[in-house]
């Protein structure tokens, strides 16, 4: 049995400003570093065997902070990067509507419509499937910590629980939240967007 611990990166300035980040490499802000530091003791309570993280700075730094007490090396995996939002990156929703109204409308209507210069949805899902296949093949009977971004982590939850793409916006993963899934047959969602370490 594999236990997956899914952690979204800490806050960045663009999170605070409600800007689309995608694959733009934005660092954590001080609030984000504090969030990760508050999560770290909780991670020490798990017997973690392996840690993977997106190689984008905000996820990589979060992983470095939350894993300090584990003594484990963090493994970078670009398949855990956020989806690329192309020309939408760096803009707020309102700014996208002003600058790219037709493209935004098409994207909202059908998420398989790719923002200009962005990553196609099928390509995004394929890299998540490939990552999960590697985990299931190589990490039997392990507890695996995955530090990534809202999009990929929600994608992993949907894939494992057999949810379709229309559920993308029906649940939230906050900065430095913890989601836990046990890979039974079928997989069991143990906790979702758990922020108890901030109480």
Q: Which features characterize this protein?
A:
Rossmann fold, about 200 residues, six-stranded mixed sheet, alpha/beta
Write the layout of secondary structure elements.
Layout: E1 3-8, H1 13-16, H2 30-44, E2 50-53, H3 57-66, E3 74-76, H4 93-99, H5 101-109, H6 121-138, E4 143-148, H7 150-161, E5 178-182, E6 188-194
Parallel strand pairs: 1-4, 2-3, 2-4
Antiparallel strand pairs: 1-5, 5-6
Helix pairs in contact: 2-3, 4-5, 6-7
Question: How is this structure best described in words?
Answer:
With 199 residues, this protein is an alpha/beta fold. It folds into 2 domains: 3-84 and 119-198, Phosphoglycerate mutase-like (Rossmann fold, 3-Layer(aba) Sandwich), CATH 3.40.50.1240; 86-118, no CATH class. The protein has helices at 13-16, 30-44, 57-66, 93-99, 101-109, 121-138, 150-161, and strands spanning 3-8, 50-53, 74-76, 143-148, 178-182, 188-194. The chain has a 6-stranded mixed sheet. The mean pLDDT is 95.
